[in-house]
Structures are given as structure tokens and as C-alpha cells.
Design goal:
Layout (H helix, E strand, L loop, with lengths): L2 H21 L6 H26 L7 H14 L21 H4 L1 H24 L2 H22 L4
Amino acid sequence: MNDNRWSMIAAAALAGLLASGPAAAQFKDAEDATEYRQGAFHVMGNHFGRLGLMANGKIPYDAKAAEINAGIVATLSRLPWAAFLDGSDKGETDAKPEIWSQPEKFKSAALKMQDEVAKLDAAAKTGNFDKFKAAFGEAGKACKACHDDFRKKH
């Protein structure tokens, strides 16, 4: 994918973040909130997966692509949390009840993930593969910890 297209994707992600700030807590209903957070997690996972392919040597390391994808993941990592509304634990969701019964633990896990993703973003900006790979590993651990505690297994 060319640099211009990556720039457009990053700009769209940033615009979504800026536009969603005041509106993030405004959903028409719990189902809308669930769809919003699932969409944010889906796109974030897609870009995180691209980083994982590089970090694990499945595709060649591309410093520019790593930087762009890490930036998108960092932006998206701040979006889904406002969509864990009361009542959004119903219907088609992988969210465990512990999200609502242990909100402080859930918030702590979310913040840990955001912190590790921010470190990944910073490491990707260095262009140094070893720093990128180490930061990817820590971000992956934070994601897994939250999934283990707060996401239903399939």
C-alpha cells in the first residue's frame, strides 16, 4: 500500500478519534454501543495483527508500515471504552460480566493496554526493529491479559 493511502487511513482514524470524543458516550441504545466497540476492536486487531506479522518474522519488517499501523492502533486503543454501557452486556457480545462487576479491574487493564500500545507506537517511530519487537511483545501481553479476564472464550 502506498504512503498516501496509509496517510489517508491514519488521518481518517485521527478524525474518528477527534469526532468521537464528545459523542463517544452518546449511543442510541446499548446495541449501538456494542456495535461501536466491536468495530473499534476489530479494526484495532486488524492493524495489531499486521504488526504481529512483522514482529514475528512472518513478513519483512517495514519501518514505515510499522509506524503507521502502530499509530492507528494507538488511536483506536482509546475508543471502545466509552461503549461499555450498562445493558451492552446483552446480545451478541464477547464481553464477560466481570467488566461490569469489576469495573476498576477492567479500567486498570484497559489503561495498561493503552500504555503498552503507546510504548509500541513510540518504539515503531524509532525505526529500530529490536525496540519495536520488544514493545510489540509487551503490548501483546497486555491485550492477552485483558482478553483472559474480560473476553469470553470461543
